[in-house]
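can u pls check wat happens w/ L-homoserine
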Amino acid sequence: MRDEIKLFAPATVANVSCGFDVMGLCLDTVGDEMVVRKIPKKGIYISHISGFDLPTEPELNVAGVSALAMYDTLDVDFGFEIEIYKNIKPGSGIGSSAASAVGSVFGMNALLGNPYNATQLTAFAIKGEALASKTEHADNIAPALFGGFTLVKSLKPLQILELPTPEDLYVTIIHPQIEVKTSESRGLLPKEVKLNDAIAQWANLGSLVHALHTSDYGLMKDALHDVIVEPHRSKLIPLFGDVKKAALSAGALGTGISGSGPSVFSICKGIDTATKVKNTIEHVYMDLGIDFDMHISKINTTGVKIIE
Ligand code: HSE
């Protein structure tokens, strides 16, 4: 069995407009790399972090916390060392903490001969994610582990549903270089919702699930609306309304806040539309004086994977 692996831990889009805290999708072209290695010394050690300034103490690092949650269940006389090469900026809204939390447990599991399934790994990774967002949610972790679109049916007991990915879907992401902390973005949300809003939201989420199963792009367009969370969080994102309007007029099926923001995602049918949406959004943001990154990605149906 191998003693070391290098892996790709993908970025993800949580909520996907109508599925707050339950729906997520996995991206292909953006992600972190990590090396996980077996070492003779017992325990979990983070020996390298590059890209962003994050703590190396395992108890203070999301990759370390999820690794410790898994390590505590093992009866082994060796330990694990983790190197983290981060590309996903913390606080970007595309699942930076989930990628780290998933990478460590996926890597350890692979080195152990895969004793745990993806749902069990999700449970360990949730512990790491909770360090960053101050609450347990799996809508970034599940797509990072399973790939494609996932629905978190319940946390207790943990139940993840894998949904089909229509062939021709692409995601265009704009990431304005401002930081939005998930905990603060959650703090903006009301504790109660109106019944009429709830009815609209669950009708949309059910329709989105049906649209994924039937590759019905028209229904997907009708379903990608968020009447509960977006109205509160959109004020955190400069020009959100303009970006959304521009993306939809350029042909996006739906545009919304990625996770807790500030990234904004647009789901598009076909690479040509995704590219047109990117160019149109770029134009809206160009003169604002805020730096931004943009990505186009196909939906990644594999999730986290070994690359070496
Ligand atoms: N569902 C979570 C939220 C995702 O929107 O707060 C955080 O990335």
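Residues 78 and 89 are 32 Å apart (CA to CA).
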